[in-house]
Amino acid sequence: MPEGTAPPRLILASASPRRRELLGRLGVEPCAIAAADIDESPHKDEQPRVYARRMAREKAEAIAGDGAHVLAGDTVVALGRRILPKAEDEATARRCLELLSGRRHRVLSAIALKAPDGSLRERLSDTVVRFKPLSQAEMRAYLAGGEWEGKAGGYAIQGSAEGLIAWISGSHSGVVGLPLFETRALLGAAGFAIA
Predict the structure, then answer these.
(1) Considering only CA atoms, which of 47, 82, 75, 72 is closest in space to residue 150?
(2) Closest by alpha carbon to 70, among 106, 109, 122?
(3) Which of 25, 23, 43 is CA-nearest to residue 33?
(4) What whole-number distance in Å separates Cα of residue 19 and Cα of residue 161?
(5) How far lies 114's CA from each of 11, 28, 153, in Å?
(6) pLDDT value for 182
(7) How far is CA 185 from CA 104, 122, 180, 188, 189, in A?
(8) 10-189, which class in CATH?
(9) Nearest CA to 94 among 82, 81, 84?
(10) Fewer CB in a 10 Å sphere around the end CB: N or C, the chain?
(11) Residue 68: CB partners within 8 Å, gap ≥ 6?
């Protein structure tokens, strides 16, 4: 960075403590947190990849940067062409776990970085995850812990659900909610000092 040039500032367009923690692993501290208030309903017949990218873009665009970059992300759990919901109640979380039990699914984690001039760059992380076949007792125990609340697909890989996952191919941090490889590339290209 040229001498006398102020370092770039970053607004994180997410209230997720997990995204902030992951961002901190790159040595980047946002100057502000501003959760985007947008309609997150998928469009009719919208593909999971298209939906994830659109959500990240719309969240970034919804936040006024005021001279700072805006980083937004969205994580989608997809079973084939089906987008699984964020679990807002235990019944939804149970349905998600029943669908995911013993099967492979994709976790698509999109990020968008809006520059102060309004230009937008984006990346998408695509991770394949397979749960072990889940017994009723395992599902009950997981649901009782409450980690599923507000989580896409009804689970949080950074919690006890990790013990139920047989294998993962891709980005663990992307499944948590912020793919660090892709985020590092975007922020580095924008002039941020990355750890």
Answers:
(1) 75
(2) 122
(3) 23
(4) 18
(5) 10, 16, 27
(6) 97
(7) 28, 10, 8, 5, 6
(8) alpha beta
(9) 84
(10) C
(11) 8, 9, 10, 11, 31, 32, 116
Please report, as a single letter, which amino acid is at residue 22.
L
Residues with a known catalytic role: 74
Distance CA 172, CA 128 (A): 10
Q: What pLDDT, on the 0 to 100 scale, is given for residue 1?
A: 47
Report pLDDT for 65. Answer: 83
What count of Cα atoms within 13 Å lies in the side-chain half-sphere of residue 159? 15
Q: How far apart are CA 24 and CA 38, in angstroms?
A: 25
Q: Taking Cα atoms as reference points, which of 165, 171, 184 lies closest to residue 107?
A: 171
3-state secondary structure of 129: strand
pLDDT tens across the length of the chain (195 residues): 455 567 889 999 998 889 999 999 999 999 999 999 999 999 999 999 999 999 999 999 999 888 999 999 999 999 999 999 999 999 999 999 999 999 999 999 999 999 999 999 999 999 999 999 999 999 999 999 999 999 999 999 999 999 999 999 999 999 999 999 999 999 999 999 887
What are the residue ranges spanned by the domains of the chain?
A: 10-189
Total residue count of the chain as it appears in this document: 195
* Contact between residue 145 and residue 93 where contact means Cβ atoms under 8 Å apart: no
Question: Quick one: which of 125, 74, 128 has its CA closest to 100?
Answer: 128
Distance, CA of 66 to CA of 24 (rounded, Å) = 22
